[in-house]
Amino acid sequence: MKGDRKVYHEKFHSKINIIRGDNSTGKSSISNFIFFLLGGDFVDWLPEAKSCDYIIGELSINGVAITIKRDLEKNIKKQVMSMRPMHINVSRMEDATKSFTNGWWVYPYSKSGDVETFSQVIFKLLNFPEISTENQETITLNQILRLLYVDQLSSLTALMRNEDFDSPLVRSAIGNLLLGTYNDDLLKLEKDLRINKKEYANIKSQVSAIQDVFTNSNIEFDSDKISKKLESLEEQKLKLNETLKNPDKISENTKSTDIKKELDFLRKILINQKKDYEKVKSNINNLTTELIDGRDFILVLEDKVSDINKSIATRKQFGKLDIEYCPSCLEKLDIIDENHCNLCKREIEDPLNINKFSRMKLEIEMQLKESNILIRQRTNELDKEKNILKKSTKELKDAQTDYDTFIGKSRSSIDTKIDKIIELKSKVSYEIKFLNDLLNLTSSYSEYRIRQSQLKGKIEELNNKIQTYSKQQKISASKAYAKINEYAIEIIRADGNYEEKFKNGFNASIDFRNNSFSLDGRNRFSASSMVVLKNAMRFAIFFASLELDFFRYPKFILCDNIEDKGMVDDRSKNFQKKIVEISEREIFEKIDFQIIFTTSKIESDINIPKYTIGDFYNHKNKTLNLDRLS
């Protein structure tokens, strides 16, 4: 779109979509626009493409129609900026474009705080698990599209689209995710293992730090002995308080003004301690009420999500409920087709209401996430307030005791010995506080040791489960790679007599970690042969994903590289015919998938509306019809 005018507008169909035209007519620009719209990060636009303002399109993801929009935002130097956000509306484009405010959500490219990225939203619709590498590198839509988009500019020897600041761990994660060789349970176990290991390392460092204190100190850390010492000191403090409550027993007097000052000081402390105590109690009551309400709200939201999932599953299983007889005259109704209402004959765009349910589900899941974050925050706040309450209770008790001790002696004269008793009492109080802290330290040490032991057992349990799932993963991986090899060899052998090694090739292999591929251990051929081999590998992964249901590959492939590097016409046409021939096999007849590829040398048998999109573009009629703007 440029302003409010369309410079390219086409409806792509299921299965084969061929964009054809002469060289330099904008076919690659359309491919790059599709890549960008779907979540790719792309900035190297040609001037004609860069002059556009935004791209908008409708997608169908697991039966849910959504409309997405991304802007080609430019900086002050008129350069297109990277990592642009995505606008998402869970409805058909016809409805979504009635307003660019109602029903639209804007999601960022990169994660920031608790805000979800558009990759996370699309992954939910794709039923992808949350996945990250061992180094906590996040997998994004841009990373996934590296295996879905075969572009012209990436290296011929690279299995996936080239990416700056790439890492082997990310590439392995992409491969395992899309090939389905990681199952959800294994991913959850590995995530739990990382969390438990992190907590274990933290607990271990705490234990080690406390042990260092124990080792390098002459203080007694026996909790029983500390408790006995505390009992003795508390008894001593009690006796001192009793003495201070009976000043008449002390012969030498001191000035009453000194007593008044002390009483005023203690009264002020007591008042402040009571205020602090009441404030903490109030905070705890408020937080407790908020937690109860928040948890009840989360249960309601979870029930709603569960009900929506059941509704979606039921509607997908049984379809829409048709009325066979007129409710007025009871005559049997004429049935037009499943996309029209039997009663009023109006067209139904979404007979199962899947879009509506999915939109509701997304909104509720966002509320759930925000509510869970608030619950964690409130729980942490409540724990802190409870710890503060313990301290405040003791301080209030001590302040009350101190005040009570002195309140009875305000009218009498007290000798200087009171000062010594007060001083002694202060020392005893300080020692009691020190020993209480010491007792808490020893108690924490015991709790840490218990938790450390629990975590160690949990980590061992998780490792055993991961080992079991890993064996199952190897079985799935073996099936996946065998099926990929089967399709790759079939496509390669259909190439014709252009490359001797292709005729009898038998072992096509891919390596996500090293971003490479090979045929019978060899990954160097002529430039045109490398194009055929690379495309064969990528389409082999695609066709294997259609046949094996454990793949997570999204049943979509975009190829802007059918012919390249001096490839002769017949060789390109052989490849095109083979891709179409495999696509039309009976095994794929009921599967909804989409192949989009560009070519300047289309085979005549497939140059028909069933397979093609738009015109055959030439230099007078390019893909981006900017002339209509003049």
Q: Whole-number radius of gyration?
A: 36 Å
Spatial strand sequence of the major β-sheet: 1-10-9-6
Q: In the CATH classification, which architecture of the domain at 15-177 and 551-629 applies?
A: 3-Layer(aba) Sandwich
Q: Outline, from the CA principal axes?
A: elongated
Question: Tell me, what is the CATH class of the domain at 15-177 and 551-629?
Answer: Alpha Beta
How would you state the average pLDDT, rounded?
A: 86
Query: Helix- and strand-based class?
Result: alpha/beta
List low-pLDDT spans: none
Number of helices: 14
Report on the biggest sheet.
Answer: 4 strands, parallel
| Amount of beta strand | 5-15%
User: What's the β-strand tally?
Assistant: 10
The N- and C-terminal alpha carbons lie at a distance of 14 Å
Into which percent range does the helicity of residues fall? 40-55%
Name the helix and strand elements from N-terminus to C-terminus, one letter apiece: EHHEEEHEHHEHHHHHHHEEHEHE
CATH topology of the domain at 15-177 and 551-629: Rossmann fold
Features:
630 residues; Rossmann fold; 8% strand; elongated
